UniProtKB/TrEMBL annotation:
Name assigned to this protein: GFO/IDH/MocA-like oxidoreductase domain-containing protein
Superkingdom of source: Bacteria
PANTHER family: BCDNA.GH03377, HYPOTHETICAL OXIDOREDUCTASE
Organism for this UniProt entry: Nonomuraea aridisoli
Domain (GFO/IDH/MocA-like oxidoreductase) ranges: 132-228
Coiled-coil regions listed in the entry: none
InterPro entries, per the entry: Gfo/Idh/MocA_oxidrdct_glycsds, GFO_IDH_MocA-like_dom, NAD(P)-bd_dom_sf
Record-linked Gene3D superfamilies: Dihydrodipicolinate Reductase, domain 2 (3.30.360.10), NAD(P)-binding Rossmann-like Domain (3.40.50.720)
């Protein structure tokens, strides 16, 4: 099996590769020499491609795509031409223009994108009785201080990578859409800078959501945090249920990276994406709208 890692723009493909290397030969393309060197130091047997075209030449069995958001539509179009299953590291779009470009692509049922958290053992398999549900809340604790140093400035730029509202907010929106489905719209959004004053976006945010059947939801984004964790709270008439996702002793497993790659490998074997694109599209629309309003 041969898997192409097309781009190393964030930390995620480095984590993905540790699981993939147990199952496949790796081909990697990344234009930044320092990022590429970091990858090849860990995976010296990986074949290095000089371009995206070269990485896709010969038909890889699957592609993990991780490029800066403005480049995703064009790069995904190239991957779709191969017919190979593709995992697009989150978020697949961060602006309205990027989302509209994705809408014009022939995205098939073996394209997967979104937050890895939906595959975390603490969350996967959770179901809700909608008739008993009053409201839901997702709290995202993920520090964004590294962006305050200027690292990966495109991620922190609202018009490119969406900033904290999109890049961290996706974790909360994804979890709620995984539970309640894609019939959701944004009711309101706000962001603020409370600590990291050199950010281009924000370090805290809140999104208000409403599903078509009247269930309301809140996503809290806390980008100033000493530890990483994600909480989903289900409010019912007589009780409250809380689901906590934490890295634990094995973050690759605990945060859902391993489960995501297992789902991707099932797609390589011929299975459709376990996440319908309609859900991914709904998540992206909520985030893009939040970015516009905030």
């Amino acid at each position: 099996m041969r898997i192409a890692l097309a781009g190393l723009a964030t930390s995620h493909p480095y984590t993905d590769a540790r699981t993939l290397a147990r199952h496949a030969d790796l081909v990697v393309w990344e234009p930044d020499p320092e990022r590429l060197r970091r990858f090849t130091d860990e995976h010296p047997r990986a074949k290095v491609a000089a371009s995206l075209a070269e990485a896709l030449a010969g038909g890889p069995d699957g592609v993990v795509l991780t490029v800066p958001n403005p480049q995703v539509p064009q790069a995904l179009a190239r991957v779709l031409e191969t017919g190979a299953p593709c995992f697009v590291n989150k978020p697949a779009a961060a602006t309205r223009a990027q989302l509209e470009q994705l809408d014009r692509l022939p995205i098939h049922d073996r394209v997967l994108s979104g937050s890895v958290l939906r595959f975390a053992p603490a969350f996967a398999g959770v179901r809700v009785d909608r008739d008993e549900l009053l409201a839901v809340r997702a709290t995202v604790r993920h520090d964004v201080g590294i962006w305050a140093t200027g690292y990966n400035a495109w991620q922190d730029t609202p018009g490119e990578g969406g900033g904290t509202m999109v890049t961290m907010g996706i974790h909360g929106v994804e979890l709620l859409v995984a539970l309640l489905g894609p019939a959701v719209r944004l009711a309101g959004a706000a962001g603020a800078t409370r600590h990291y004053t050199t950010l281009r976006s924000e370090d805290t945010g809140v999104l208000a959501l409403r599903w078509d059947d009247g269930v309301t939801g809140t996503v809290e984004i806390l980008g100033v945090s000493a530890s990483e964790s994600y909480t989903v709270t289900l409010h019912k008439r007589d009780s409250t249920e809380t689901i906590v996702i934490e890295p634990g002793d094995d973050p690759v497993k605990g945060l859902g990276y391993e489960g995501t790659i297992e789902a991707f490998l099932a797609m390589v074997g011929g299975a459709p994406s376990p996440v319908p694109w309609s859900q991914t599209r709904a998540v992206l629309d909520v985030l893009v709208t939040a970015r516009e309003r905030a």
